[in-house]
Amino acid sequence: MRFASSGLEAYEEAAWILLQTDVNAPNQWPDMNYAIWAIFNPTVRIDSTAQAWIDQAQSQAKKKFPNVDFSLVMIATPVDINAPPTSDQEFMYITPEPGSLILLVSGALGMARLLRRKAIT
Asked: Less packed terminus of the chain by CB within 10 Å, N or C?
């Protein structure tokens, strides 16, 4: 669904559910995913657990999402915004925190150094 056609509230609710993946067990993630799909496409059939996620998101929306940092959530959209919405899909993802990125980069540099040292000998 297009960014402008569903309103910011739907994106905030979906982003709130996505952010809950950081604090909930992986076995909850499928229901969270179905809940997000249902927010943007009401014809998606969901079970009561997925509906409970939507209900929680709507409850948080009424409270204006206290203590939620939406800057952690990125939305990747198609480049051609004028294309018909039939085949386009948006993706939401959580940006890694700076500490995780530093750890990843330092580990990659360390591995590269070891491989280079091994190649020289």
From this structure: C
Q: How confident is the model at residue 2 (pLDDT cuts 50, 70, 90)?
A: very low
Residue 101 is assigned to a structural domain of this protein: no
Domain of 14 in residue numbering reads as: 3-95
CA distances to 62, 69, 76, 95 from 72, in Å? 21, 6, 13, 5
**pLDDT beyond 90 at 91:** no
Q: What's the chain's Rg over C-alpha atoms? A: 19
The pTM for the full model equals 0.70
**Cα distance between residue 11 and residue 8, in whole Å:** 5
Looking at the structure of the chain, the number of domains it has is 1
**82 is a domain residue:** yes
The answer to whether the CB of 47 falls within 8 A of the CB of 88 is: no
